[in-house]
Structures are given as structure tokens and as C-alpha cells.
Amino acid sequence: MADKTKTGKKYSFTWLVERGKIRELVEAIGDNNPIYRDAKVARQQGYKDIIAPPTFATVPILWTGTLLQILGDIGTKFERLMHAEESYEYVKEIFPGDILTGIMEIKGITEKKGESGALDFIQLKTTYANQCNEVVLKEEMLIVERK
Amino acid sequence: MEPVFEELVVGQEVIKLVKPAMTRIQVIRYAGASGDFNPLHTDDEVARATGFDGAIPHGMLLMGIACQAVTDWIPKKSLKKIEVRFEGVARPGDLITVRGRVTDKQTKKNNGIVICALEVRDQNEDLKVSGNFEAELPCKRDKF
Prior knowledge:
The complex is a heterodimer. By secondary structure, chain A is α+β, with helices and mostly antiparallel strands. Chain A has helices spanning 19-29, 39-44, 58-63, 66-73, and strands at 10-16, 81-90, 99-114, 117-129, 135-146. Chain A is built from four helices and five strands, in the order βααααββββ. Chain A has a five-stranded antiparallel β-sheet with strand order 1-3-4-5-2, with no helix packed on it. The radius of gyration of chain A is 17 Å and the shape is elongated. In chain B, strands 1-3-4-5-2 form a five-stranded antiparallel β-sheet, covered by helices on one side. In chain B, a hairpin with a 5-residue loop joins strand 4 (111-121) and strand 5 (127-138). The longest helix of chain B is centred in the middle third of the chain and has 15 residues, at 59-73.
């Protein structure tokens, strides 16, 4: 059973957005849109530089170790976890060179009985701001632990 | 051409992206790019031990593909919200198709808000990801 007493706990992390990391992510996805790799095209389309793709926020929560730290703190078993839901609300674009600060909060941990036994639903909410203290992105994630 | 709010019809299919077969290398690259090294995604033995047929690609890779389809259709800056549910696991070799259709239209100030449903399916039409996104599109009358 995931540790419900951790509900409400917040974790912060910072992340420098690199051009190369954006490139790696879109290459892996197979997304050839030039707005993620060619600054000239991005400028023609009204952006000041290339931009981070819509799912970029997965990079800092994983590469900073924040998500693993949270999942460890609430006592989940890594190999039993499934990503159930994900949502993003876009406020401003994220550009290379931005320094993002994320605050990830454990919003809730609930146990439900599933067909194949009990499941824990872990709800995480993250807000990202840039170096100008502007909120750029809000994220919600639902992770399920199969027991 | 950027879609125009008035020209969209509720029910209309606006997105169809057919991807090349997903490969193991792609999944490994996604692990490295995203930083998600859960062996469930890359190691067949680990995946089998937890009840799968073999390693299963990251759900976020499928969401990334869904978002590719969305920003092929509308400018990234028009995308305001997206929410997905991971319905089923994919496997390397799967032929992934993303489809999107308009489910609602609303006007807000001088912009049109379009809500679309998204589905990510494999070659057998098995559902992998479902979801919705909200896009803010310019209205035609702005141009007059």
C-alpha cells in the first residue's frame, strides 16, 4: 500500500532546457516538425526560437529523478507501476535556454478494487515556471500501482 | 494552411497520422531522451515477469506521437490543453495510427475554441490511447 501520509507533499526541481534534449525527444517520437529543430522556420511561424514539444515536461521530472524520488517516498514498487492518465495545460511556450522550476505535488493516493485485485491510484500535479517566474505549463499525472 | 474555426464541423475527422512500425530502437531512444529507464519498456524478461508478452513501449511515447499528429494539424501555440488515458499497451512492431475528430466548438472573445477527441490505435484497431485536446483557433472575421 502506497503511503497516504505523503499526500500534499511538494517537491521542487530545476531544469535547463537544452536544444539537444528537445532534438533527442522529437527524434525518438519521430516528429519531424521543423518548429522543434529549425530556429529559422520557428521564427517564421511566430516563435522567437525553436520550442519544446507538447510532451517535453516528461524530461525534467524523469531526468532530475523527481518522479522516482516521489514514487520511492510513497513506497511503490517500480515494476508494478502503470501510467494511467496524463494531461497538460499550456500557458506559454518553452524555449531552449529556459530554466524551468517545477513544483510537483502528491495530490492524492486512493485505493480501488480492480478485477485483478487492489490498485493504488497516485495523482501528481506539477506546475512549471520559467526564469521570469511566468507559469508556462501545468501537468497532471495519474499512476496506478498493481498489487 | 492553419485551420479556420468557422470551417470546422462537429464530427469531422481532422487528424489522421499513420506512423511507420514502432521499433525497439525507437523505444530505447525514447528511454534515453525522456529519462524513463523502467526496464518494463525495454527488457522482455522483466515485462514477462509482470504479466506482459514482452517489453512495452512507454505510454508517453504514444502520447508524444498523438501530440505530433495534433501539431501537424494546428500550430503548437494554438494547443491549449491535452488529456489522455492510456488504455492498452503497445508492442514493438505495432503500426500506430492517430485519429482526431471535432467534438465541440465554442467561441471565446475573438477566438474559437475547438474540442477534439483523439484515439491512438494499432493495426488491429486495438485502442492504446484515448483523449481530448482543446485548441484556440482564429475566427475568419478577424481577417476582415
